[in-house]
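If you are new to this repository, start here. Below is one unmodified record pulled from the training split, so you can see the exact layout before writing a loader.
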Amino acid sequence: QVRLVESGGGLVQSGDSLRLSCAASGRTFSNYAMGWFRQAPGKEREFVATCSYGGGRTYYAESVKGRFTISRDNAKNTVYLQMNSLKPEDTAVYYCAADKVPRRVVLPTQLGQYDTWGQGTQVTVSS
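And here is the target side for that same chain:
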């Protein structure tokens, strides 16, 4: 059974940085693209960033482009989300997710393309 565990969330001030981590187990991690999504109170879960199975290709939501960086260490079965210049509107529960299709060519950006989710980690940015 695949399991994803996020860590690294917290309460920060506007302009600060945080790095989220997501540790995976139970699947050949290096065969699957990984993504980060977030869900703010009263809003739908939205795409943030995705990284190809090899780590060489990434794609970001416009709202975080230039501020967030997704990366992965396949030797450690871990994916990261480095978040810089945080804004109050970045406040949300952040979830990592694993692609349902191995070695997908086109990076997955839709919720339905992922079949395994972590429990989420809260990120709160105060103004």
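Two things worth knowing about this chain: The chain is about 0% helix and 50% strand. The chain has a mean pLDDT of 96.
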